[in-house]
Design a protein that fits this description.
Blueprint (H helix, E strand, L loop, with lengths): L6 H9 L3 E11 L13 E5 L5 H12 L3 H5 L1 H4 L2 H12 L5 E2 L5 E5 L2 E10 L4 E9 L7 H15 L4 E7 L3 H10 L2 E10 L16 E4 L5
Length: about 220
């Protein structure tokens, strides 16, 4: 397993179309949660509404386009249909009991621009399965949305919340670290995505993803 950490091994695998990256589990003791930032004017948060399923799927597809998580989890993120399947699997309980109250949708002047997916893994542990925000709406909105969701867990009596993030995604990792999440373990993800995903360079204008789905 330790061989997968070697850059030479990773580069060799990629020559054969295989992608390997390490992800880490992170857990937040909700007693450490502090502060509750306000959203800028014009933004609002709404609880999950299934009427927006396809809009959220399109948002996430554009969010992950060109990212490493899109390669690792290409079965989901290579098409809007795949993203919709991820949400349907979450609704069916793949990541725990889907939590419609703390799953939040971010809107700006009535238009969807972000989402955070949550589930309950037990009566004391919540789980963050996905977080995405349009880049033109970043600047604290994503962290505010996440923290609002975390406060929702705390106020409902949960003790902790967990998530998983690709270590290469330092922007996301540092966000969770600042909030108070602690590393709880690491695991590799190995995938053989379609050839076209290996040539993605950058996401199209409009959306940027923060974290990928939970450990499979």
């Amino acid at each position: 397993m330790h061989l997968l950490r070697l850059p030479a091994v990773t580069e060799c695998l990629e020559r054969f179309g295989v992608v390997c990256r390490w992800r880490t589990g992170m857990t937040l003791d909700l007693r450490r949660l502090s502060g509750c930032p306000s959203l800028p004017a014009g933004y609002e948060l709404r609880p999950w509404d299934p009427a927006y399923l396809r809009d959220v799927a399109e948002l996430d597809y554009r969010a992950y386009y060109g990212t490493m998580d899109a390669r690792l989890y290409w079965q989901y993120f290579s098409t809007p249909t795949g993203c919709e399947r991820m949400w349907r699997e979450a609704l069916a309980g793949k990541f725990g009991c889907f939590d419609p109250l703390r799953t939040l949708l971010l809107f700006h002047q009535g238009r969807l621009c972000g989402d955070v997916m949550t589930s309950a893994r037990s009566h004391v542990e919540g789980f963050i399965g996905n977080l995405a925000v349009a880049p033109e709406h970043r600047g604290g909105t994503g962290s505010a949305m996440l923290i609002r969701s975390l406060w929702g867990f705390r106020e409902a009596g949960f003790e902790r919340v967990s998530l998983a993030v690709t270590l290469e995604n330092q922007h996301a990792y540092q966000l969770y670290d600042r909030i108070g999440f602690m590393k709880s373990g690491e695991f590799p993800v190995v995938a053989r995505p379609p050839a076209e995903t290996m040539t993605w360079q950058a996401a199209p204008p409009g959306i940027e993803a923060r974290i990928g789905p939970g450990r499979k």
